[in-house]
Design brief:
mainly alpha
Amino acid sequence: MTDLEQRYRALSRQFHPDYFYNASAAERRASLERSSYLNDAYRVLKNPVARLEYLLKLEGVAAQGPEQASKQVPAGLLEEVFALNEELDEVRDVRANGAPADEWRARLERARQPIERKRAEHESELEALSARWDALDAAAPANDRRRVLEGLRERFLERNYINNLLAGIDRELTE
């Protein structure tokens, strides 16, 4: 059992509304509220993506909404985005000219492969940076903390962009 699970269970036993059935209405309501907050926090912390989003918001470095996050292609992805967009245009042309579905679907699957590799790389980088963040303590120099946070933010934005690219391929496959 992880430390997170142990702490969650201990706090859950402490705040669970069932233990407050004989308490005053105000105490029961407070217990219900604390239990609800605890459940929400646990859901966020046990999900690595939700945890990262929360951390970036908490530290004030999150993108300010989806429009900012997708406004600019991350520099590390320019080449892949350009190549994928060209391939998608060509696939649309081939499909519009009546090519068999297996032909253009195979092209889309080939186009997916480098993006999938990029996603795997980013997931590894995010895990490593998350571990670095977790290893920092409150006394760590501010510039070290900021450097890790900026790396997490960049990898997270790139991750979202990669997922959008893959979603675009999926849309083409289902049309």
